[in-house]
Please model this.
Amino acid sequence: MVQKYSYNWLCDYLGENAPTPEVIADLLTAHAFEVEGIDEHDSDTIFELKILPDRGSDCLSHRGIAREIATLTGVPLAVDPLHIPVTISATDLIQVQIADVTLSPRFTASLIRGVKVDESPEWLKTRLAAIGTRSINNIVDATNYVMYAMGQPLHAYDAVKFPQVNGVWQFVVRPAEAGETVSLLAEGGKDEDRIVTLRGGELLIVDGSANVPIGLAGVKGGRFAGVTTETTDIIIEAAHFDAGLTRRTARGLGIVIDASKRFENEPARALPPLSQQMITDLIIKIAGGTTLGMIDVYPVPKVPPVVSVEVRAVNARLGIELSTEVMVDILTRVGVTVEMMGDTLSCTGPLERTDLNIPEDFIEEIGRVYGYQHVVSVVPETVPLSEYNVRHVYSEQIRAVLVAAGFTEIITTSFRNQDEIGLQSSLASDKCFLRSELSSGLGDALSKNAPFTDLLGVADTKLFEIGTVFTRESGTVVEHVSLVVGVRLRTTGYSGKEDASLTLVCNLLEAELGIPFDWVLKAGVAECSVSTLLATLPVPTAYAVVPKAKETIYKAFSVYPSVSRDIALWVQEGTEVSAVEEIIRFAAGPLMVRLTHLDTFTKDGRTSLAFRLVFQSSDRTLVDFEVNGFMESINSIVAEKGWIVR
Amino acid sequence: MATFIPRGHQHPLTHMIAEINQIFAEIGFVFAEGPEAELELYNFDRLNIKKDHPARDMQDTFWLRPADVTEPTVLRTHTSPVQVRYMESHPLPIRMICPGKVFRNEATDATHEAQFYQLEGMYIDRGVHMGQLKGTIEYFFSKFFSGEVEVRFRPSYFPFVEPGVEVDMMLKGGASKLANRWIEVMGAGMIHPNVLRGSGIDTSDFSGFAFGVGIDRLAVMKYGIDDIRHLYSGDARFVSQF
Model:
């Protein structure tokens, strides 16, 4: 996902010797992430970075990006909020009951009493504004700030409005029952809260005093115990929820917000208490109050994997020659704990990197930090081909025959609005089924192209397509490669005379391949199964040499209709056709897009030359009187040459 | 009227596929194919794209109606499942390419189509490394664009490779619009051990690279096509230019 980062914010962690924004952009581009944008904004520079899915766990945060920059420059962070000591004491004023710790592996809640909800200080408003987040009040802003700083989403409740049982606040985290409802805060631009009826299994945060759902875990909270200007005591929640379940729930409801995006990417288990410390310090600074402690429920601590990386494997995969010392130095810069065990590096990733789990992950770290520009190109040694693609060989042979016979190849849509095999949740109504035949698509193409014959300088419309069709056989989908060939002689539709020339080309194909084809011929269109043919054709032992494509630069063509006019002239015997064409071109002007010489005959010392002229504009439909004007100017100019219009 | 029959025109995509095959056949890469309606298992799971993983966001998928199939089936979103099927059915070492039609359930515009063509390839052998990946891609582009091409790698992420890279190319010299600047063209990387092992390949002994590029994108680059929808419009005014 693309996320905004403030340069000034990054400098909070990088310190005085931070590289310039330009240097940062170059470093990240070459070694880490695509920089999609870099903009000056109120004496700050805003980066838009495309964070790859595997780095969503640590780099959807300013601290993560600052740490990445520190890795690449080799200069450690001046301030690292991930290494602050957690000093908040434990409290038994809050209880947390987790139904399934695999779905909520860590849950922290802390209590701050005596805060004053107010506007945020200017520095905080500026930080959030820089990355496009609106300021609400100092408490809500603090939760957002810590999320964008650390990558850990947080939620603040008004502790006074949150009912207690015997003086204790009770959180329950449990899967929803089918049909249970939860009220979620209005989404951006809407006034009303959204009441969601659940399918069952979605993870809920529940007020334990009344067993009332107060939020969808990791996805969205409700208005329950919302922070207002009257709020004095707050409970801050910072927890982890199953990435897959969060994703399914969020997608299912069409809610994708910054918090759920972070949970989906499985942030490090260490983050909740660290984020509690950071937000507690921040709130006390900007809103006053005192901490009454935190509960941290983390029954099954996650042990980071220790991964054995063979030194030999690093160079063997990357295709470079690095010494063990360089590898260890790079890994150490990444924050990996490395122990040498003979020819093996025993590696443990830093606590925030949940993506470093197998040797290849560490090999990638070494490669990208060292720089892929050092990878030297080697073309693999040539070996003989072990097999030939039968479908390709014969398709190319069929194409060659058809193109020589004047047919043009098209590729049309594989979709239909009605057919045998259906698709679910297609975005477009014309893409709800898969084609079971090519004929209807080719028939449509013939009708569409028939008016273009004059424009293209061809006598009739001849098209073919080779493509996959889908049918249902004994309960499942079967694919065939199909060939369809079609001819159209008139713009008004199938004339009945097409089948003769179509049969000619069908016979030509059968003669060329030496076997009969199973044609289905209807209304100037003939289709047969290539897959069936391939079963009987001999196994090829070579590919035909591919003729070099002509150097073509595509030219946009006019979407407006063309207008054709024929002209026949008596000229003196021996007059060059090209000389006449030159005069016609000159006289016709730029809207004549094609001139075709139709025929020549000579009688009594005079020669008759007939031409077809095609006019077309790139920006409008030409009308008759315009074209008549062009023809009149041609007539008068050829008359000056002494040629007579027949 | 003359009896001379003017030649028709081969579609630029099929001609490009023939050229691509010729270039790769010279260094022993086999042209392999697979179904367009592909099992979810091959399109996602066997490629290390786990259910509910954010990586599935990268692709919007057409699913076949359950009534028409016996196992969950999609229109393949890439030709990578052909690689998995090939690994399963062929002895090592393997050199193959798999150009073919792929599908994405997304809104169409001048640069996006619900169907398009992709070229993927892979090489699995003892000691295959990123230098060979770079060399193979440079070899291909140099032949395909008829000039000296240099490529560079930038870090990227695809679930089926590790390390994964984005490939930029530069056509060196010449007056072409493509010349002398870096152009992002393809994704590539070393095949993820989960993918290799899933097909029964011993990763302590063998490694491999894989790459993928949109053939439509190559057509845009090579011919200056302004709207990829022309490729599938069945319009002879388009195809006749080639």
Q: What stands out?
A: The mean pLDDT of chain A is 93.
